[in-house]
Specification:
heterodimer, A: mainly alpha, B: mainly alpha, two-stranded antiparallel ribbon, 21 helices, globular
Amino acid sequence: MRKNGEIVVGCCFLAVAVAFTTGAVRLQIGGPTEPLPGFFPFWGGLILIVLSLLYLFYAWAGRVAESPAFGRLGGPIVVVGTLVLYVATLETLGYLITTACLCAVVMRVLETKPWVNAAVSLVLSAVSYVLFDRLLGVTLPQGLLTVFGA
Amino acid sequence: MDFFANLSSGFQIALSASNLLYCALGAILGTAIGVLPGLGPPATIALLLPVTLRMEPVSAVIMLAGIFCGAMYGGSTTSILLNIPGEAASVVTALDGYKMARNGRAGAALGISALGSFIAGTLSVLGISLLAPTLASFALKFGPPEYFCLVFLGLMMAIYLSEESVLKGLMMGVLGLLLGTIGLDPVNGTERFTFGLTRLTDGVDFVVMVMGLFGLAEILCNLEAPENREIFKTALKGLLPTLADWRVCGPAVFRGSLLGFFIGVLPGGGAIISSFAAYAVEKRLSRHPERFGKGAIEGVAAPESANNAASTSSFIPLLTLGIPGNASIAMIFVALMIHGIRPGPLLLQEHPEIFWGVIASMYVGNAMLLGLNLPLIGFWVRMLKVPYRYLAVIVVVVCVIGAYSVNSSAWDVGVMAFFGVMGYLLRKFAFPAAPFILAMILGPMLEKTLQQSLIASGGDLMTFLQRPISATLLTVAVLLMLTPLLKGLWKKSRSGHNGG
């Protein structure tokens, strides 16, 4: 299982390296006398390809040093999914609503009692809005609040 | 005499009412976040960097220096009281510090940690004041080949000294270099890998990336496991070490400071390696090495002094050569760049107020930590008792606001989330983040100096070996990279001899 994970990671590195190398070729590489915009990423990509292949070989041979094991993956997956939704709705729904929801999800994952969860999420969202938007001058998206002329 | 005049002008800047306030605020905020397990100095600086974006450059850097010192100090507190190092440099402190706490001497451990750090910081500031101007004037003679080799050596040191394997460090370093090419080409100004998105023209926003890579990734890692944190319940009394303690700790603090200072100056060197080295030296010199690991106070004094001296002296390569030696200093490098100030040999001539202001503020920051944090230790301990779920949700909100505030754009929150996931996965597969961060920052400089060197020499790669300084730097870098290979060969040949 772990070995498969290492191989997937190695493949990701390899894919990134190949993407940069081919992109660099499109940008034109030039040569040592006249290096063009693709010169540096091309050689960087090529080196990463070699390193990734070496890593893949070690992973396949089971010679990669052991790394920390995964715990319960549910929590991180739920929070990352919520963050994606958060980014998609932040501008339209506004900071207060989306942030309260995000806090509620994070605290739910960390097994907080429902009423504590609701109270802390609402208070934290409101306090951070007042602190950063009103006092520190960071413009946070108002979203639905504009309907109420806030 | 110039030295004293310059330093006193630095103190005038650092001791102005507003800068003093920023420094104090930075030290307290830095400690508050640094105290949280897992959030070390780079994460702390990343989380608080957006706060400094609207300030005057000098004030911003002074506050960041305070945050940096505070975060280092906060990390030691969790090591001693919780046996959870807030950052890697405090790992060694936990060995004897936690044992001291269990033996009822938590106060003395925290006290010697703060006092040792203060003394080391003071000595280190003195060292910087003497050494930095000389190094800056020497660096003015550097041409592109020397700079290329210096940056290359810095990267190689960061990779070599990273905790994980050299192969993983190299992969992360090269990945950082490649991601650093996104945006405008530093020589021709051609757009690269932007996919036509204007948001990517200036490259990946560093502040946003680091917030994800350190702040969010830390939270994601902690979401995996249920809360499992025991605060050692002990009365915090006797913060000042006894005379007997000082007799043992005095030389340890001095040796730790000296060792930390010189290790911190090296590109890629810094607090982590210096604390380990200082602990090893003390153990070797001790008449009772068997006490180490069982609550020896010099086992706390030496690494704490060393890591603080190194943190301070790691400003030398930043301020004089424009090369950040570690991830925390890289964050301060970015803050300077955001304020339109380019660290390097010309900084002393163009912005002496920044140069001497930062040096003086490091000293003021250390003094403040001593004055503010020793009485506040009880408060930091109470803060650690706050359930993790509340701390986690606050960190998430700070990350989100911090990322959004950079360009007032939800896109940046998405980028932060992306790097959060990436940071989480990289931790799970034990890939070090420091070489990646340094490579991303130093990549454009590496590329520019490489191209300039090649164009000036008509494409002759031997130009790097024909100049004595660049040849020396390059040789050291290559030797560093070959060390693991040579070690392996040596081990094989030894086992072959033994077997045969």
